[in-house]
């Protein structure tokens, strides 16, 4: 039996005031009455007595939403047929404060019938809630249709998703997000305990706007409770600008509303304001302060479009499919306290669309319901064919498991009355931003089963011109804003897919180098073909996400160097074994054969991952069949590793064969090749020189493009040192070790590569006349300053230092002997060898004598700064590592003493040596500072 809480008896005025305050259970009844909200001249609807009560989770990462209950189909008995007054005698006079009769409220209003009928009259919008819809779960999603266009605030983005229910508490309707993260299967008493232990969340509340309909027993709810900051956009604005933006309800309104048998959609235009823009500080603060919005006419005011969808969930839940860590699928996970005998109570279901054969007995059958992607009308005509090709490429994988035309593509007409961000249309849509570009492939799912119910791919305009614009504009600020040459363009890889953004840098580099070689003219058909192939590549990647596939950053290691140069091979198999990798442009050296520049088709891993997620099985056969499929993980072409494995920062991943934007079965060789390609580009552009008619920033852009190709190479190379090759096998299935130390010879080769390339001045020499020609765009008020090559180079070098001198690297190198046999241990790389090689390569001038270049002095200072910190401050560095640091520092101190008195050196070099000796001597004498 369901218990309905009995509301407190309150006067009508007190009830309204409590609702206005946001949550009747928490706010005092003495809150002042809000003034009536003004409706803007262009508003379609607005105002209303109730406001939402609480914002919900982090925007941009849609959580799933379970639910059941299929709504009755709208028909002749729906609201459109019975909207008039009830037949019979006139209704009795309502009690004071009671809702008005249904017919009175909607008199002269128009209705859009459906799952939740939507009524509209002038500026008013009401949602009709059938009696049986209260207490029943459904899906609420909120997409961002329009925004500011900078700093992560972009239009065309799928937003939050919740499994919600409507609760009626007296004359108040609450919109409640259900907690789906914790369940207890099989035990009603324990399930009750779980419900009592973990709270739901209130998203909004509104007063009942009408009495019950005489026949349907439904009521009206003022929809203006959705004119609220339900998506917590004010927090995003504050994060971007550090200004207190708040929602202006009076100037927010509904632009459109529609309903059908499965969902209701309301598109709102929300106005955010901040009372004033503070004056800039007189003294530059130690931490940079973000500027106010630069893309709006007045930074105090901006509009954000939100598309709300109230969607029915499947009456018959899809049979869930258990996830396997040997493959990379997104999952819906929850904690099941009913699994008392399992050490881990987490349950993971594969995220996938419901795909069933029309003819289960046929070897190849069309699906009952295909996966349909709508191309938004805002996609440029130039790219639509390539976008469609990227989507339909996935049909090859579905055909292999028995589905014909599993995926179809439809074009949204220009005069369509629906928004592709609504819950009824999986879509691909374009957006632009003034400062960045990326692509995302999120989805909303039923967490009971993992069934994907909606997906909206957002693709930024980063192709061709866009890629070059971003590259050129960023160089001027590189010395002050970039740590890793591109840091301001990058985003956390675990936050969303930034493949398109970084791939745009790859495209810019490819076009610049091929143009410099005279292989491609800027406006040639070959360039257009390359751009279209690149668009298809990015779309394949993002569609893969919306089919449920995670990144696979080991796919690049399955193709060797000879295969990358073989166009016949790459055309049939791709340049990687999965489009879910982050793939750089496959540019051959000048003396090599050229394969496909970008991957043109699905790889072996993609077919395998689709088979596991979507191949139909009888329920009793499924566990065994899935185990058989997953057991193929030992096949070389099916290598898999995800974002966590690929993270390469100072404390990041440990497998040097799992990376973003590399190619070939030996990443170290790829890094060597990329250094050569960047050097080639720089040499060619310097030899060419500036010519009349050139873009003023051409040379500046090309310089930046070359540096971007190197931005992650130092830390990725340093991953070899103390590195472990990781295999994702289940216990007892293959006999392969989970962790295998990288070959010591490769570790030593990585150290030599850093010394000979990253730490070498010769890798970064430029002609003075070239540097002097790097002009900014003088038409712009904000323009770049002269480029500091030493600062850019130091940004690369410190990556390697930070990785090699961390506690994690030290501990792994010290632990390596434990993973080796007695025969292998004598050849193992030691930590003393690591520190000694690093120190001798950085300070080699102390033994060679002679002048120390300015870039080398910068590198030496950074090394000494880290040594000083380790000697004087507490850290988590292992004890043996601390002893080795001190021993190496003592040796360096002796070398500095011998060098400091040399004659014939420049004042800069003599001062540098003296200061370094003083700093190191003080550090060796200092007492440890306890943190």
TrEMBL record:
Pfam families in the record: DUF4953, DUF5117, DUF5118
Entry annotated with the keyword Lipoprotein: no
Residues of the DUF5117 domain: 156-358
Keywords of this entry: Hydrolase, Metalloprotease, Protease, Signal
Query: Out of the domains of life, which is the source?
Result: Bacteria
InterPro entries (UniProt xref): DUF5117, DUF5118, EcxA_zinc-bd, MetalloPept_cat_dom_sf, Zn_MMP-like_bac
**SUPFAM superfamilies for the chain:** Metalloproteases ('zincins'), catalytic domain (SSF55486)
**Where is each DUF5118 domain found?**
99-145
Region entry Disordered, spans: 55-97
EcxA zinc-binding domain: residues covered = 525-848
- This one is known as Zinc-dependent metalloprotease
Any idea which GO molecular function terms this record carries? Answer: metallopeptidase activity
